[in-house]
Amino acid sequence: MYYVDQPKPVRSRLLSGPLVDIYVGASKRHWCLHRNLLCHHSTYFKDHVVEEDKQRTAKVELFDDDPRAFELLVKWLYQGRIDDVSDMPVEKKWDYADACQKLYVLCDKLLLPQLKNFAIDQFRKGCYQAGLVPGPEEIKAIYDTTPPLSPFRKLASKIAARQIMALDSQEDAGRYKLCFEGNPDFAIDVINAIRQGAGGILFGDPTEGGGCTYHEHQNGERCNTE
Questions:
Q1: Which of 145, 137, 140 is nearest to 119 (CA)?
Q2: Which terminal Cβ of the chain has fewer Cβ within 10 Å, N or C?
Q3: What is the pLDDT of residue 203?
């Protein structure tokens, strides 16, 4: 479990005062949270809390974010922790890892670096313990929702590079065509990850030697020299 502790007097102040209505995701799932607590942890809320009038609760809309991720954020804000994926049954680990990926994106928006680090740690651990990694669709979503040089992009590109280079893999780089087309940075990151992972091993010189390796053939893999 990951904790964030506050002294009791500070905690009491944060859990008092006006509330904020927050609507998350396409379903507009609703939470009503303490404004002091939100603004204490995140300057985003200081800038985005909209008070419609003195008689109504302030409102924030996060329609592009995942309610599962926001639920984890609420737990962290009010309980000072998020769950550890190690304590979950195997069948729930991947779903939790996926929620933590969405939490990372949310924390990036809300400027919560500590919780963002916790989220990526839980994502990595969840993938490892579930024996699963994000596929092209999930990796594309990561690149679509994170900025250049994001640590999560670095992680995703290394996962893809390892899958491409795995000796027992039945897939080639074409599996990630969706990612290559959608974000040129992904191609650069994967190539750099493969280069680093290869440990300086150089491919054979393709210009050396004769033969017909680079000829076009109508039948078979070799030229018909007869």
A1: 145
A2: C
A3: 80
pLDDT digits (tens, 9 = 90+) for 65-74: 999 999 999 9
Closest CA to 151 of 205, 113, 197: 113
Please list the ranges in the chain whose pLDDT falls under 50: 3, 226
pLDDT in tens, 189-216: 999 999 888 777 888 888 787 778 788 8
Q: What is the pLDDT of residue 3?
A: 47
CA-closest candidate to residue 101, choices 80, 125, 77: 125
Distance CA 29, CA 19 (A): 16
Long-range Cβ contact pairs of 127-132 (< 8 A, separation 24 or more): 127/94, 127/97, 127/159, 129/85, 129/86, 129/90, 129/93, 130/90, 130/93, 130/94, 130/97, 132/94, 132/97
Could you tell me the CA-to-CA distances from 98 to 13, 61, 66, 162 in Å, in that order? 34, 22, 10, 19
Asked if 205 contacts 216 with a C-beta cutoff of 8 angstroms, the reply is no
> Distance between CA 6 and CA 2 in Å, rounded?
14
